[in-house]
Amino acid sequence: MHRDITGRYISSPAGGEMVNAFVPNPLPPTPPLEINEARQRLLERATLALGRLDSVSTLLPDPQLSLYAYVRREAVLSSQIEGTQSSLSDLLLFELDEAPGVPFDDVVEVSNYIAALEYGMARLREDFPLCNRLLREMHARLMARGRGSDKSPGEFRRSQNWIGGTRPGKARFVPPPPLEVEPCMAALEQFIHQPAEATPVLIKAALAHVQFETIHPFLDGNGRLGRLLIAMLLHQGGLLAQPLLYLSLYFKQHRPVYYELLDRVRTQGDWEAWVDFFLEGVEQTAQGAVQTAQRLVALFQQDSQRIQASGRGAANALRVLHALRSHPVATLKLLRTETGMSFPTVGKVMQTLMELGIARELTGQRRNRVFVYDGYLSILNEGGEAL
User: Fold this and answer.
1) I want to staple 27 with a disulfide (CB 3.0 to 4.6 A). Which of 160, 174, 191, 200 is the partner?
2) pTM
3) Mean pLDDT value across residues 334-351
């Protein structure tokens, strides 16, 4: 639907020049979002796909395992959209404190993302509302270390920012002036708290994401927090017990369309085209997440059977394999701690797993060796190549 511009422009100083900053109208859209028959079917399919994902996650042998893996994969993908070059392997090595040569700022950004998500989910489980205070607290953790830590973590911005372009006057988009940030975010918070009868949860997540990106309330980290907001809304709205759906890969694969649709919402009021894109992304991503979960279960079963068939210390090898499912990149020291086995026994088991083609040693050294569960990591890495 064509609604014309969905806000107003205010002249604002930025970088020594005056720019036209965009202040969005409060949600929901006016006139209301058109839910025609085709869009209703899209909404139903996306909701059904989320339901399948939610049920599959409860059937996994260890749901926390999947959460561990998905959160880290999403952290890498979301940070890559912002230009980091870290891979999932970099992150897992960093978490081992064994990351020589890994770009520190890049991998710290990814690690901060995990901290922000885990903090936000813990607060929601304590029945703390999804509100501006929580978003600021998550932002403080997102920007706690590394690049951007000097850009007012946890505080709404007090200066004008802009998106794209080498200077404000050439920017692709200029968000609201600093004095408009608080009122805009207060209105967004009010919309988020509207009952589901007023706006279905998936539609609310779609609209709120665009509004957050348009307000761009922080000096840095808006993209990552805006994507986290989607997962938080789906969890709070009861569609997912665990935050297992992330749209960063979908947004990464469709970046030009994503940015074009955000602009069309602002300049033409075409919320419908954005909602269709978002719902298609939810359906595709949920289906992909179900398939990934099923492939991981199949991999674990297949590798367990190979170990049992080998007959060589199968009981110990299965214990180490279980530890590798929690830590697909690991040292002998970590595996010893996880299994309670001795260094010689863990070392012997890892030799067996390498001979079976299940694990691989990364360093080529005799001491301080690092092992990777290859099949597991390759499944998680799909789509996670640095841009």
Assistant:
1) 191
2) 0.88
3) 93
d(CA 39, CA 168): 37
Residue type for position 283:
E
CA 100/CA 373 separation, integer angstroms: 20
Domain residue spans in the chain? 7-291, 311-381
pLDDT digits (tens, 9 = 90+) for 219-234: 999 999 999 999 999 9
* Local confidence band at 387 (pLDDT 50, 70, 90 cut-offs): very low
**Chain centroid, CA 229 distance in Å:** 9
* Four-point Cα dihedral 280, 284, 287, 289, nearest 10: -120
Is residue 147's pLDDT more than 80? no
Dihedral of alpha carbons 295, 113, 322, 381, sign: positive
Closest to 75 measured CA to CA, from 309, 300, 380 = 380
Q: How close are the terminal C-alpha atoms of the chain, in Å?
A: 34
Could you tell me which CATH number the domain at 311-381 has? 1.10.10.10
| Cα separation, 317 vs 311, whole angstroms | 10
For residue 56, which of 244, 202, 235 has the smallest C-alpha distance?
244
- With CA atoms as reference, report the closest residue to 156 among 132, 174, 175, 173: 132
311-381 matches 7-291 in CATH topology: no
Q: Which helix (H) or strand (E) holds 7?
A: strand 7-14
Joined together, the tokens standing for residue 113 give 């993302």
Q: Which CATH entry fits the domain spanning 7-291: 3.40.50.1110, 3.90.1300.10, 1.10.3290.10, 3.20.20.60?
A: 1.10.3290.10
